[in-house]
Design goal:
CATH architecture of the largest domain: 2-Layer Sandwich
InterPro entries: 2CSK_N, HAMP_dom, HATPase_C_sf, HATPase_dom, His_kinase_dom, HisK_dim/P_dom, HisK_dim/P_sf, TCS_sensor_his_kinase
Number of helices: 11
Distance between the termini: 50 Å
Structural class: alpha+beta
Pfam family, one: HATPase_c
CATH class of the largest domain: Alpha Beta
Organism: Ruegeria marisrubri
CATH topology of the largest domain: Heat Shock Protein 90
Shape: rod-shaped
Helix content: 40-55%
Strand order of the largest sheet: 4-3-7-6-5
Largest sheet: 5 strands, antiparallel
Radius of gyration: 51 Å
Subcellular location: Membrane
Number of strands: 14
GO molecular function: phosphorelay sensor kinase activity
CATH superfamily of the largest domain: Histidine kinase-like ATPase, C-terminal domain
Length: 465
């Protein structure tokens, strides 16, 4: 038998972590790329702005006054600085104190009032020959007898070199980021595989186990693996309990039924070959009694199997024991078990609440009632009441009750003597005792002159909690 193919939509933990890391790095890479590009633009602007400042200062220093006129001797060093941006166009202009263009381009833009942070120096962006450009306006003041006023020097260049430097800085940053991201992903995958190795070891341990081996796993290891191992151990413990219940049911059935079935077969064989009508009738009567007793035994064994199953899986709820007492009497099952036997109900006006499983309690009470009908004397009374903070569901009859041997063997799964006779009083008491213990209670009995009373004693639940 081959294992079913895994769901195609499911992903391993390693794949999920890898996808998460890649997505995180991609988002982080986009953010860092934008940050790197912004930093590159700022760095490129500052670098080339210094060239403009150097060139403008060189030109401004070359201006002098001769005979009351401005004389400009353009320095070669200014243009050498601007020529460092080989592919960019260069623009310059010198204005006299009267605003007249002394040299350079006549149509260069001038900064607006908002672009002039200071009186002496101002950077501004504008177009030049259809291309975006960066400009610097530098003011030099003269205070001579022959000439007084401000001379403006405007120097600019297009942005090709600036943009190229910004892109180059961004590319270098992205290359480093990509290499670092790849290294982080590889290291992260190695760490994830190393961290998940105990989980794989746990899976391998479980897969290599024998199907019948439900012993606890070793919970030692990382905390997360220990939690998983403890959860698996809890599940296997519950599974083992269910298997034990099934094995016990099969064992009990084989043990309890072997003797009465063999007796029925022997008596039926005798009746089949008996020629005397009177003896045949006695044998048929014995077979009938055995069959009725065997049916009662089977009912209680199935009841025990149901109770054991529900004790492991049923959810505890608030149950009023008065309702249990009323239900088992009103169901009328006692009329089929012991026709004509008087059965009474005795409950009070106050609730008798417990936290338990109603079906399990009902089965336990039915077994107590069945034992009273089969082995006690009428009248039989079913009741529920409170006594000293204890909730009691009880069955009483006018008889002496089970023998001391049966009471002392309470809790055993079966009685050999009962099985040999096809009886089941001990099994019924065992069911009731198991239910009482499962809900934190006990089974109590009292035999006196007034008859025999047996009670399931549980802790009362206050205010329905």
């Amino acid at each position: 038998m081959t294992d079913p193919a895994p769901n195609g939509r499911s992903l391993s933990l390693t794949s999920r972590l890898a996808i998460g890391l890649v997505a995180l790095l991609l988002v982080g890479g986009v953010v860092l790329a934008l940050a790197a590009f912004a930093y590159g633009r700022v760095a490129a602007r500052e670098a080339f702005d210094r060239l403009l400042v150097g060139a403008a200062n060189d030109i401004a220093e070359s201006i002098s006054i001769s005979d009351g006129e401005l004389v400009i001797d353009l320095p070669v060093s200014a243009f050498e600085l601007l020529a460092l941006a080989k592919d960019d166009r260069i623009a310059y202009q010198v204005r006299g104190v009267d605003g007249r263009v002394l040299t350079g381009y006549d149509d260069l833009p001038v900064p607006t009032r908002a672009q002039q942070p200071g009186p002496d120096e101002a950077f501004f962006d504008a177009g030049f020959k259809g291309e975006p450009a960066r400009f610097l306006r530098l003011t030099r003041r003269f205070a001579e007898r022959s000439l007084s006023g401000d001379v403006e020097v405007i120097v600019g260049q297009t942005l090709l070199a600036r943009n190229e430097l910004a892109y180059d800085i961004t590319r270098n940053a992205l290359v480093g980021l990509a290499m670092g991201g790849a290294a982080i992903i590889m290291l992260a995958l190695l760490m994830v595989r190393s961290a998940l190795r105990p989980l794989g070891d746990l899976a391998g341990t479980i897969a290599a186990r024998d199907p019948q081996d439900l012993t606890p796993l070793d919970p030692r290891g990382p905390r997360e693996i220990a939690v998983t191992a403890n959860a698996i151990n809890g599940f296997m413990r519950r599974l083992d309990q269910q298997f034990d219940a099934m094995r016990n049911l099969i064992s009990d059935t084989a043990h309890q039924l072997r003797t009465p079935v063999a007796a029925l077969r022997a008596q039926s064989d005798l009746a089949l070959h008996e020629q005397n009508p009177e003896r045949r009738n006695r044998l048929v009567e014995r077979i009938h009694r055995r069959t009725v007793s065997l049916g009662r035994l089977l009912d209680q064994m199935l009841s025990r199997a149901l109770v054991i199953h529900r004790l492991e899986s049923a959810r505890r709820e608030i149950v009023d024991l008065r309702d249990i007492a009323l239900d088992i009497v009103e169901s009328g099952d006692h009329m089929l078990i012991a026709p004509g036997t008087e059965v009474r109900v005795e409950v009070g006006p106050e609730p008798v609440n417990v936290k338990a499983d109603a079906i399990s309690l009902t089965e336990a009470a039915k077994n107590l009632l069945g034992n009273a009908l089969a082995h006690g004397r009428a009248p039989v009374t079913v009741g529920a009441d409170l006594s000293n903070g204890k909730a009691m569901l009880w069955v009483a009859d006018a008889g002496e009750g089970p023998s001391q041997a049966v009471l002392e063997s309470l809790g055993e799964r079966f009685l050999r003597s009962a099985a040999s006779r096809g009886e089941s009083a001990g099994l019924g008491l065992s069911i009731a005792g198991a239910v009482a213990e499962a809900f934190g209670g006990r089974l109590e009995w009292d035999a006196g002159a007034g008859g025999f009373r047996i009670s399931i004693v549980l802790t009362a639940s206050e205010d329905g909690r």
